[in-house]
Amino acid sequence: PPGCGKTTAVQRVVEMQPDIAITGFYTQEVREEGRRSGFEMVGLSTGRRIMLASVHSTSELRLRRYGIELMGLEEIVQLEFAVESPAQLIVIDEVGKIELYSQHFVDRVRSILDSDIPVLGTVAIRGEGLIAEVKSRPDTELIEVNDDNRDELPRQIAEQLSTLR
Question: Does the CA dihedral 47-15-133-3 come out positive or negative?
Fold first, then answer.
C-alpha cells in the first residue's frame, strides 16, 4: 500500500549494487506544507528528475486531484529504457495507475519483462491492464512490503538478485 516503504526498499537495494549497471527510475512523493502535492520520477542512470503528477498541473490528463505530465514520463522511459542499454538490472518503481496513461510506458515495460535482464519493481496493489498482467506472470515473484519486513527486505532482495547474475 502507499507509504509502506516500497520506494525506500528499492533505493536501498540499488545502493547495495554498486558494481553493476542499473537503469530505470524510482518515484517519490513531493510534499508541500506536510501534504502530498505530487510525484517526481528520478532516472537512475541519467539522474534526470521530472514531475510525474502534481496538484498544480494544468494537464488535462487527471487521476483524482493530480494532473499527469505525460511528456516527462515518456522522456524518462525513453532515456532510461533505451534498447541499447547495457543494464544488468532494471528498476521500475512503479507500475501504477499514473504510469498506465502512457502506452509507450506499457509497451516498453512489457518488452523489458520479456527480456533476460532482471527487473526490480513495485506494482500497485490494485489495478487492471499492465498492473494485473505483471502480477500474473509466472516469472514474477511478488513480495509484500510491510512494517515487519521492510528493514530486512532490501538485503534479502539484493542477495536474491546476486544469484541471477
Answer: negative
Cα dist from 108 to 3, 90, 105, 151, whole Å: 26, 12, 5, 31
Contacts of 5 (CB under 8 A, 6+ apart): 145, 150
CA dist 120 and 140 (Å) reads: 10
With contact defined as beta carbons under 8 Å apart, do 67 and 88 qualify?
no
If one compares 5 and 54, the residue with the highest pLDDT of the two is 54
For residues 52, 78, 83, 105, the Cα torsion angle rounded to the nearest 10 degrees is 50
**Pairing relation of β-strands 66-68 and 62-63?**
antiparallel
Cβ atoms 135, 107 nearer than 8 A: no
69-125 pLDDT per residue, tens: 999 999 999 999 986 778 999 999 999 999 999 999 999 999 999 999 999 999 999
Average pLDDT in the 116-140 region?
95
The answer to whether the beta carbons of residues 100 and 127 sit under 8 Å apart is yes
Q: Flag whether the pTM goes above 0.85.
A: yes
Mean pLDDT within 16-26? 93
DSSP 8-state code for residue 51 = E
